[in-house]
């Protein structure tokens, strides 16, 4: 690991940096800018594993020819309330920005819309997309098939399922909007890697071995499997997400998922779905948001367990993290900083993050 | 508990019995028939806690004036793809049959529909409604606010959340359709009661006490709380379901939920949502269903853990249970049989289940 301390850099500087890297690798300026904004939105939420941290990896994929730099992202089937979008193997952020905006436009007209995508790529943090409709007083829902398989079916030992996440966002009034964003596994693969690096033991419930026994040594992770939340319940939710975000769209699910951390060149055919719905289908937006505020406060102000400082609503921690990081900047650890400087040097960028 | 052995009765006889009980209590014939069919569909799926088992309890509510016997179930807001349905405090099965059929009609026209309800009641097993669109080659989704609170928010000790379930159903070809139906708590309240009756210990992970320690003695259940699936993840999903099925529709959620097992007379204002979407928005139905069959088989036929006989898909066990019970009948335990006979006697029904 590189020496040094974690630096904190301003949002605008990091967005510009990402855009200049992707531009130098051949992305059109507007696509590079879209990727930069979406990636930094992950960092702003505190989901550091899905933001600028992924840039070196995305660059590897681009250089290996795994991403189409001049894509034509477009609907191939469409009606007033649904669309199937061909991502044309563009950067995932480009595909999902297009798809989510399309869902918002359709929902603004019709009240409700469901847009699915195929031929996409990893798009970052799920809540980045589910929360986009919220600014339009809409509920947002997002599901995707993860870009690698780490879990067997319930009762199985063959890794043919990913961490398939679901994210649901709901507008509120003066309270932070609700933004649930959960993988359907108890722990993320990254958390296991981190525990191994730190020499820590994992809690029972994160992983099991091939005989179904608890696996708590993260160094033995390759001998075992991530567990779904709630056992067979999370397994079922995981499969359903895979079918709605993958199979329905003609995208990868199961054995045809490409592990994008191992294979940089093969087309991922990553599948996503996004739903947007105007809350004023059901009641005036201001009345709904006022009632959301009341319910949010009822939950937050309910009696706490001894030693618990605060009850959090889904997405509330991220809301404050966004505010903090917009103001103070985004931390970049030394190892990542080293990779970013290397990229800047190779691509002869004006800002080398010195 | 009543003595005797469990009897198995034919589907038609039990449907007729339920319809005659509800008819004798004043429900219009067609509403009584609807309730009977929906309730027995729960039993057919093997969800014995949500079918005819509830009849004595529903009758208590009806007799206490807790249900409107002559309701006008109708949309109070509506467009081509959404509707808000006022259940007018009708039996939950009547409200949700109306709402689900409305969602299917709208989706048949427009491709997609979301119908929410307020002023409803307990409607039985979630999958009964999510699977109704499947026969029309549609994806179905259903969420509801449970009719009683058994869980605190994550970090809290005040029971203001229920087991709020979600159910998602997806058509397949020659394979059983997918039908996920999960509560967002690890264990259902009924399972805890059953463990207490049997004098069994609960596994760690079902419940915690007020200090957050595992609670394994089901006789001490009142001192503790059900746990959500995946900890804070299931808590978040639970809250989001409550907001989409409850708050959005102006239905009860949080402290204003009525515990319908304790209070028979107060209007429940139970909230539900159902979504229906034609799969042929995305690809021809036959092609989608063929691909679903392939994916289902890939999962089922993947390598199993030692000692595991079969990998099940969500809803597959219930599919075979339906087939078995349609043929052989539905088991009624002696305690329930005694209650049903008592009802038959009081209401002087022709069939007293002798």
Can you tell me about this structure?
Two copies of one chain form a homodimer. Chain A has two domains: 7-185 and 228-283 and 323-346, Malate/L-lactate/L-sulpholactate dehydrogenase, NADPH binding domain (Ribosomal Protein S8, Chain: A, domain 1); 186-227, Hypothetical oxidoreductase yiak, domain 3 (Wheat Germ Agglutinin (Isolectin 2), domain 1), CATH 3.30.60.50. In chain A, 36% of the residues lie in helices and 17% in strands. The first copy, chain A, contains ten helices and twelve strands. In chain A, the strands form three sheets. A seven-stranded mixed β-sheet of chain A has the order 2-3-4-11-5-6-7, with helices on both faces. A three-stranded antiparallel β-sheet of chain A has the order 9-8-10, with no helix packed on it. In chain A, helix 1 (11-24) packs antiparallel against helix 2 and helix 2 (29-44) packs across helix 4 (92-110). The interface between A and B is large, with 77 and 78 residues.
What is shown here, in short?
With 354 residues, chain A is of the alpha+beta class. Chain A contains 10 helices and 12 strands.
How does the SSE layout of this entry go?
The structure is a homodimer of 354-residue chains.
Chain A: E1 7-9, H1 11-24, H2 29-44, H3 55-63, E2 74-78, E3 82-86, H4 92-110, E4 112-120, H5 126-130, E5 138-144, E6 166-170, E7 178-182, H6 189-198, E8 207-209, E9 214-215, E10 224-226, H7 232-245, E11 270-278, H8 285-300, H9 316-328, E12 330-332, H10 334-346
Parallel strand pairs in A: 3-4
Antiparallel strand pairs in A: 1-12, 2-3, 4-11, 5-6, 5-11, 6-7, 8-9, 8-10
Helix pairs in contact in A: 1-2, 2-4
């Amino acid at each position: 690991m590189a020496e040094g301390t974690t630096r904190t850099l301003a949002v605008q500087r990091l967005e510009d940096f990402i855009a200049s890297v992707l531009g130098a690798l051949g992305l059109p300026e507007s696509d590079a800018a879209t990727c930069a904004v979406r990636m930094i939105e992950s960092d702003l939420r505190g989901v550091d594993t899905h933001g600028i941290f992924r840039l070196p990896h995305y660059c590897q994929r681009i250089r290996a020819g795994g991403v189409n730099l001049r894509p034509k992202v477009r609907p191939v089937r469409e009606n007033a309330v649904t669309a199937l979008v061909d991502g044309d193997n563009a950067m995932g952020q480009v595909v999902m920005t297009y798809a989510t905006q399309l869902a918002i436009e359709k929902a603004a007209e019709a009240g409700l819309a469901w847009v699915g995508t195929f031929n996409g790529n990893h798009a970052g943090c799920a809540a980045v997309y589910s929360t986009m409709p919220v600014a339009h007083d809409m509920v947002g829902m997002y599901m995707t098939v993860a870009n690698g398989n780490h879990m067997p079916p319930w009762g199985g030992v063959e890794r043919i399922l990913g961490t398939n996440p679901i994210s649901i966002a709901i507008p509120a009034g003066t309270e932070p909007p609700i933004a649930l964003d959960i993988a359907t596994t108890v722990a993320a693969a990254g958390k296991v890697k981190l525990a191994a690096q730190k020499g820590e033991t994992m809690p029972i419930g994160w992983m099991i071995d091939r005989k179904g026994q608890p696996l708590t040594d993260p160094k033995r992770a390759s001998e075992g499997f991530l567990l779904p939340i709630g056992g067979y319940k999370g397994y079922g939710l995981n499969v359903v997400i895979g079918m709605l975000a993958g199979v329905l769209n003609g995208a990868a699910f199961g054995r045809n998922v490409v592990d994008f951390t191992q294979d940089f060149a093969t087309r991922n055919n990553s599948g996503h779905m996004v739903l947007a719905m105007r809350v004023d289908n059901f009641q005036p937006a201001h009345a709904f948001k006022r009632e959301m505020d009341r319910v949010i406060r009822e939950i937050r102000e309910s009696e706490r367990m001894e030693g618990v400082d605060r009850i959090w609503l889904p997405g509330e921690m991220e809301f404050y993290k966004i505010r903090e990081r917009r103001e103070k900047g985004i931390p970049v650890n030394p190892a990542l900083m080293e990779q970013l400087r290397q990229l800047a040097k190779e691509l002869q960028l004006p800002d080398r993050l010195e």
